[in-house]
């Protein structure tokens, strides 16, 4: 199935127009967590305070299936 990872910080959204294929939602969640680790690592390496990044895992139609974020309670 194709999942889209929309990245959010506050009201800002970076939409994933292309999406990526994963066998299931569990695999997509693992990739979303890895993406958050990469984003947090960039903040640390750049000497910036940590952003409150969230990754919304959504269907092609825009339905959010799961949200992953360090400062956000996961669905």
What does this protein look like?
With 75 residues, this protein is α+β, with helices and mostly antiparallel strands. It has one domain (2-69). Helix content is 28%, strand content 32%. It is built from one helix and five strands, in the order βββαββ. It has one helix spanning 25-45, and strands at residues 2-9, 12-14, 20-21, 54-58, 64-69. Strands 1, 2, 3, 4 and 5 form a five-stranded antiparallel beta sheet that branches. Strand 1 and strand 2 (12-14) form a beta hairpin. The chain starts with a strand and ends in a 6-residue tail after the last strand.
Report the count of strand segments: 5
Q: How much of the polypeptide forms β-strand, as a percent range? A: 25-35%
Query: Which class do the helix and strand fractions yield?
Result: alpha+beta
Our measurement of the CA-to-CA distance between the termini, rounded to an integer number of angstroms, reads 20 Å
The low-pLDDT segments are: none
Query: Major β-sheet, in short?
Result: 5 strands, antiparallel
Number of helices: 1
Total tally of structural domains? 1
Features:
single chain, 75 residues, five-stranded antiparallel β-sheet, globular
Helix and strand arrangement:
Elements: E1 2-9, E2 12-14, E3 20-21, H1 25-45, E4 54-58, E5 64-69
What's this model, at a glance?
With 75 residues, this protein is of the alpha+beta class.
